[in-house]
Design brief:
Two copies of one chain form a homodimer. With 237 residues, chain A is mainly α. Helix content of chain A is 67%, strand content 3%. The radius of gyration of chain A is 19 Å and the shape is globular.
Amino acid sequence: MNLSGRPVAGSAPKPRTRTDHAYALLRGDIIAGRLKPGTKLRVEQLRADYDIGATPLREALSRLSADGFVISEGQRGFRVVPISYDDLQDITRVRILIETEALRDSIENGDDAWEARLVAAYYRLSKLEAQEEQDYEQRERANEAFHDALLAGCTSPLLRRLHHTLYDQHKRYRNISLMNPAVPRDVHEEHRAIYDAALERDAQRACEATRVHVMRTMEVTLDVFRKAEETPTSTAD
Amino acid sequence: MNLSGRPVAGSAPKPRTRTDHAYALLRGDIIAGRLKPGTKLRVEQLRADYDIGATPLREALSRLSADGFVISEGQRGFRVVPISYDDLQDITRVRILIETEALRDSIENGDDAWEARLVAAYYRLSKLEAQEEQDYEQRERANEAFHDALLAGCTSPLLRRLHHTLYDQHKRYRNISLMNPAVPRDVHEEHRAIYDAALERDAQRACEATRVHVMRTMEVTLDVFRKAEETPTSTAD
DNA sequence: CGCCCGCAAAACATCGAGAATTTCCTAAAG
DNA sequence: CTTTAGGAAATTCTCGATGTTTTGCGGGCG
């Protein structure tokens, strides 16, 4: 009955095992772009950086390779998955496929609690979007919470899991392109369109709005990369 | 220049590293149903069975857990993912989503070589389907070759990868339900419908035929399980 | 009679060292 | 000057052993 006053298991943010810890750290660093695409992941190096033994590190890297964040070149170690235009487009395309299907399901099956959570998440996000100064971390969290709330009603665990992975793969591209000045864009309006359609239980419209939203995100990211290529190595190394 | 006469790397079927080997063995045994759903996977046990050290085994299990064939209950080891009606339906649903999208792409982009390969694969499969006595292994290979050929034109590596995993997850259910007498069913006709539509480049019709085919496969599998539940433990040991 | 505590055995997760392989550098041959 | 061969250094992969956590069992207390 958890009379101890300590938080119940499951809500705890602290990973239980070294492997889980390593997995979370590596995944986070790859998505955040701190580990750059194509980088060789030498176990000895990582061992020093994270202060974790080789065995848990290798296990974490194995999981990440199945997730598509790392490639394992048998007998030649691991490296961060490279980025490419094609890859971003591929991820985007599949993400739209998965996300719209999950959203359709969520809209059809979401109950009152789903609605309430969605309203709350949208409210918080809107408030942050209206602010002048943008705390990226905070806003990213709110953005994720909003998208999670949208899909919370989805009855398919598989769709949820796939979406989560694809979302993070996409997020990596966004983070890598982040430092450059973003193309002006009315994100709030895109969010509002999805939100309105979802609350009205108009799945068709919500999916279309989602498609537009995800495509725009990709296009902005692609633009940043293209511009970065024209201006060679200004921020490199 | 490989003057040794040995086959060049890449064509070799033999896994290069112990981890890869363990991964292939475990995956195969799980899909074939030799490792039953819910079974605890004790490393010491596996070590004896496969004659592979604990470290490569754990790495393989980690990868399998990311693939969804194994669950990792932190600090309490690994076990084969359990089966359930809900899970089979979930897998089927997502598989249809992925497979029809991949097929649509394949039909739109497949070139002459794609067509030729498809014709050949269909021809071989038809011949086996017409036979009286059925070698399951052989037929399964032909079936897989046919489905692979259908999707070979798909331009999205991600869709291909996801489909491969989902196909094998589905296959596990089929294999587990295998011993029981199958419901009579004209599989050949279903295959023919997909094949004809694909060659005519009618994506819409091919996708619909695929949907029907996959749904039927699931329903037959579900029927077998339901019947097995009514007749308790006749073949169980 | 049932519940709970605590000890022993099993299993898991992790570490450090040792075999196998790749990579890198040097130097000679064409 | 490019190419090829050889060997040393670095790195990956694997094993056996060790600390920690979970599990299973038995005895005592309510």
